[in-house]
Amino acid sequence: MTQFDLFCMGNPLLDIQVHADEALLARYNLKSNDAILAEPEHFALYEEIVQFPKVVYVAGGASQNTARGAQRLLPDNSVVYVGCTGNDKFRDQLVSAAKADGLTTRYVTIQDVPTGTCAALISGHDRSLVTKLSAAEKMTVEKLKDSATWSLVEGAKFYYVEGYYLTVTPDGILEVAKHAAEHNKVFTMNLSAPFIPQFFTKVLDETLPYMDFVFGNEGEAEAYATAHGLPEPKNTVATALYVAKLPKVNSKRPRVVVFTQGVHNTIVATADGHVEEYPIIAIPENEIVDCNGAGDAFCGGFMADLIKGRDYASCVKKGHYLAHAVIQEVGPAYPRELDTN
């Protein structure tokens, strides 16, 4: 079997993307720049938006977006992505879209449950994501440790898991994380959304000791700081340093925390107390098409250069490059031509 450098795991979702106004957001009690799991009050939203005149369907899911981006910058067969889907037309669309980016997928098929979907509501440069996990939330430790799937874990050197997966299989994440620590491989996770540190604090704290790299943005950093009672929750640098210095299972690798801040500098903090800030690539506002997936793209670029053995400055630069490219496209889509150097 082919061994892949990077193993990614998360919720494969078909994004249903529309442009939304404040009235639509208010009707479903949604924020313009947020990500939540759908409650029964949101179910009618999906039926409503598919009737919009301009609907865009995109193969999504945070980790899958990152996996596709990393694969676009790496040699063939460098990245494999694992998650659960239904056995329906949406699964077929996901397979096709992944192949278009050269990504190898191992979707665990869940019979009689639909493939997960995400309502991506775009307002200006903000996006509100409302996710109905469906089949995506059916991953278990047993499915993950199936011989064919677990062999992909064993063959990898780097791991990337979205924070959303802490709502699905925290035990499965820990199995992968423990394998990485035991074999001195690189385990990385993204906080993914403010509700993860807010409402899944316990499982996040149980997993964090295994994280070699922690990714997030300023909103997620503030949510983490608030949940843990830090004195300056809006001080992103202080939160990055706090997380970087937390206890770690694999002492052979110091933890690195990477927090993006929208149009402001990206912060990289290490356990020795060192902090570097890197400016983003400036872009005129009229050239921004859609910021959905920019954070995932950043991580894809960062991971690609990390796998190539490059320094953190290079990793951030490649992350900024890929995020800059994706915000000029509709949805978390990558342009046909990319600089893979």
UniProtKB/TrEMBL annotation:
Family stated for the protein in its record: Belongs to the carbohydrate kinase PfkB family.
Q: Please give the superkingdom of this protein's source.
A: Eukaryota
Instruction: Locate the active site.
Output: D296
The EC designation for this entry is 2.7.1.20
What is the designated name of this protein?
A: Adenosine kinase
Q: In which pathway does it act?
A: Purine metabolism; AMP biosynthesis via salvage pathway; AMP from adenosine: step 1/1
Keywords assigned by UniProt, alphabetized? ATP-binding, Kinase, Magnesium, Nucleotide-binding, Purine salvage, Transferase
One example of the protein's molecular function in GO is: ATP binding
Name the job this protein performs. Answer: ATP dependent phosphorylation of adenosine and other related nucleoside analogs to monophosphate derivatives.
Q: Which residues form the Carbohydrate kinase PfkB domain?
A: 30-335
Asked whether the UniProt record includes Transferase among its keywords, one would answer: yes
Of the GO CC terms on this record, one is: cytosol
Look up the record and name the cofactor or cofactors this protein needs.
Answer: Mg(2+)
Check the record and name the SUPFAM superfamilies matching this protein. Answer: Ribokinase-like
Which BP terms does GO give this entry?
A: AMP salvage; purine nucleobase metabolic process; purine ribonucleoside salvage
Quote the catalytic activity from the record.
adenosine + ATP = AMP + ADP + H(+)
